[in-house]
Amino acid sequence: MFRFRQKAAQWVRFWQQQFNSQSWLSLHSLMLIKGILLFLLSMGVFLYITDGVINQETRDWDLKIMLAIQKTHTPILDILMKTFSNIGGPVVLIGISLGLTVKFWLRRQWIELFGLLWAAIGGALVSLLIKAGFNRDRPQIWAMIHDHLNTSSYPSGHVMNGVVIYGFCGYLLGRSFPRWRGLIYLGTFLLVLGIAWSRMYVGLHWPTDVLAGYATGFAWLNVSIISFEIRKRREEMRRKQI
């Protein structure tokens, strides 16, 4: 009971400091507000796309884009797009997550470790749960890669998990190297863009699958960043009180 009251008091002090007159316009407060707004915007986009997919309003649009992408196929692009598809696959993403987990564990960076696990595991579960709610077949136009996938095509798990994991890693790098933040964010964006395009190029996802993957991935990425920033802020407050 005492520990519960102590924890509750810590949370009250935290939110008081977040929203008092002096810190209302602070960087952390603005970051929290922006993150919440971006989450709501992302979910709004996802629901809008989902409504069009369910009502089959995007069928012709999806098909036209896929046929246009097919015309861009070249031997060099085939190799490049297969590589990007693999970069967004579970083997690479799990390997990156495990490697960073070990690194944060050895360095006792517990907040970074928790943030990474929250982003990676939570994102994977959210992706599977959303896919379970749909039964959309994958494109049957062509398939350059045979992933033997038995999950719904909607939304793209490669894109969603790529946005979450690479996005969170890019965010951590941007915090550590603020001077190079712009280039880091640009590189992360281009990497995820390559993964998204590759999933259409190899014929395993419709464009709306990719867009929905972006929306859900960006939403969970914002949840992960908000959670990480709250823990970082609490840690800074705790150190100041010592």
Automatic annotation (TrEMBL):
| InterPro entries (alphabetical) | PAP2/HPO, PAP2/HPO_sf
Q: Which Pfam families match?
A: PAP2
> Domain Phosphatidic acid phosphatase type 2/haloperoxidase: where?
113-225
Gene3D superfamilies linked to this entry: Phosphatidic acid phosphatase type 2/haloperoxidase (1.20.144.10)
Q: Superkingdom of this entry's organism?
A: Bacteria
Give yes or no: UniProt keyword Ribosomal protein.
no
> Which residue ranges does UniProt annotate as crossing the membrane?
31-49, 87-106, 113-134, 154-174, 183-204, 210-230
Q: Does the keyword ATP-binding apply?
A: no
Q: Which UniProt keywords apply?
A: Membrane, Transmembrane, Transmembrane helix
**By what name is this protein known?**
Phosphatase PAP2 family protein
Natural source organism: Laspinema palackyanum D2a
Q: What is the lineage of its organism?
A: Bacteria, Bacillati, Cyanobacteriota, Cyanophyceae, Oscillatoriophycideae
